[in-house]
């Protein structure tokens, strides 16, 4: 017999979902059989799979030990240690992701990515224990392209992840970008509306001014902060968040980003020796209009990256 006590991160989900995450090698058919035959009990009683778990609930298991035996090998310990923390509390991390760092591991960057660095940091700090948090892993709430830097949000617990995902989905955050563009946009401030379509085959997007079938509406607001006939610094506020939206939209109005090899001017980029787009998600403002639970303290706050590297090169 073994027992597990449900903690805060594991609460609020169906029992069968929790068991599937906790016992990855247990066939689902066997799991349901264990529940029917009372080999798995909740608070000492027979339980059905759809019951939702509460913090402090005790699960009792009369099952094979092999399902509890897992190798304690954590791939995230191979990740780098470097993290630039803009803000941290018991619920979230705000991280200044540097240009060149990928948010999530893939086939090319399987040993080091921002999400893995976060897990390593929290594990070594003692804020994350994979043995205790069996069905929750700290996670990034948003992502930024590898060749763009800026603020990325990481949730340290299940409630924070759930709330932050809802806030992002409902546009209760404002994300401001700095960019350097060719020429000087006119007027100095404008809110642009256009239509966007992504080509999955080439990983590029097309922007048109009038609505078309297959195109999605985009809204991009810009303000020229440092005007110049040759190169201007702009602040951009995204009202929608489509692939390459800022890069493609600014290029569409005749002011491509410096260093943008996909939508920009290659000769212009070479003049400034820029091989990556001059774009940075430098400021984040929390503007909650609905209850925020454990994140309520963030409402009305603004966080900003103090040093944007590409500004030193122009």
Short summary:
The protein is of the alpha+beta class and 314 residues long. The protein has 6 helices and 14 strands. It starts with a strand and ends in a 10-residue tail after the last strand.
SSE topology:
Layout: E1 2-5, H1 15-22, H2 28-36, E2 40-42, E3 58-61, E4 85-88, E5 92-97, H3 114-125, E6 139-140, E7 149-155, H4 158-169, E8 173-182, E9 189-199, E10 204-208, E11 216-226, E12 231-238, H5 245-252, H6 266-272, E13 279-286, E14 302-304
Overall description:
- With 314 residues, the protein is an alpha+beta fold.
- The chain folds into three domains: 2-67, RNA-binding S4 domain (Structural Genomics Hypothetical 15.5 Kd Protein In mrcA-pckA Intergenic Region, Chain A, Roll), CATH 3.10.290; 75-169, 2-Layer Sandwich (Pseudouridine synthase); 176-281, Pseudouridine synthase (2-Layer Sandwich), CATH 3.30.2350.10.
- 18% of the residues lie in helices and 27% in strands.
- The protein has six helices and 14 strands.
- The chain has helices at residues 15-22, 28-36, 114-125, 158-169, 245-252, 266-272; strands at 2-5, 40-42, 58-61, 85-88, 92-97, 139-140, 149-155, 173-182, 189-199, 204-208, 216-226, 231-238, 279-286, 302-304.
- Strands 4, 5, 6, 7, 8, 9, 10, 11, 12, 13 and 14 form an eleven-stranded mixed beta sheet that branches. Strands 1-3-2 form a three-stranded antiparallel beta sheet.
- It is elongated and about 75 Å long.
- The termini are far apart.
- The mean pLDDT is 93.
